[in-house]
Amino acid sequence: MKNQKRELKFFTIAEYEQEQEYLRRRHNEGWRLLKVTLPGIYLFEACEAEDVIYQLDYHKEGLGSQDTYVKMFKDCGWEYMFDFFGYSYFRKSAQHMQGDEEIFCDEASRLDFIGRVFKGRMIPLLVIFFLVIIPQTILQLSFLDSDPHRGMLGLYLVLFAVYAYIFIRFGLQYRKLKRQAD
Q: Contact 166/14 with Cβ under 8 angstroms?
């Protein structure tokens, strides 16, 4: 049996909970996460199967005071693993958990997390969407009689759909958390 394996898996910005569950399942199957690289490649190492909870936090500001940020989680029993694209990865053995413990202790802190993701990830995506994707889609529509423009239109329509999917998923997640916090 190989000691390490790589898996290709994609999660949108709003699917952090699904990513956490995916990592937990892998650890339960005997594969401990070592690192994540672009484009969605997860490197795992063989380990003894154990129920381990994985949690993600998006906290670019924490990178300025990394030691304090990591210590805060370590004091609560979370093992800091690494940072990837603004997200910090933590894990903790389920046997050391106190109930349904999470790094977000309430809905308000979870909503704050989503707000940080919005500022750090969604705003740049919105800028690209409105300044590049939409204008290029409209431009390509005006030149439909040319073969290269039809191909480019197809590309921009796919990008439009991907961005729309990300925005809708994020919006639904935000609305759900907002309702729970109210």
A: yes
Type of residue numbered 95: Q
DSSP state of 158: H
Amino acid, single-letter form, for residue 8: L
| Mean pLDDT over the full length of the chain | 87
> For residue 117, how many C-alpha atoms fall within 13 Å in the half-sphere facing its CB?
22
* Model confidence pTM above 0.85: no
* CA 161 – CA 148 distance, rounded (Å): 20
Query: What is the spatial distance between Cα 145 and Cα 141, in angstroms, rounded to a whole number?
Result: 9
Q: Tokens for 161, please give them.
A: 């759909």
**In this predicted model, what pLDDT tens digit does every residue of 15-64 receive, in sequence order?**
888 999 999 999 999 999 999 998 899 999 999 999 999 999 887 665 56
Nearest to 110 by CA among 55, 54, 60: 55
Tokens of 140: 């390509």
Alpha carbons within 13 A on the beta-carbon side of 152: 18
Four-CA torsion 125, 131, 134, 136, nearest 10 degrees: -120
Token representation of residue 134: 């939409």
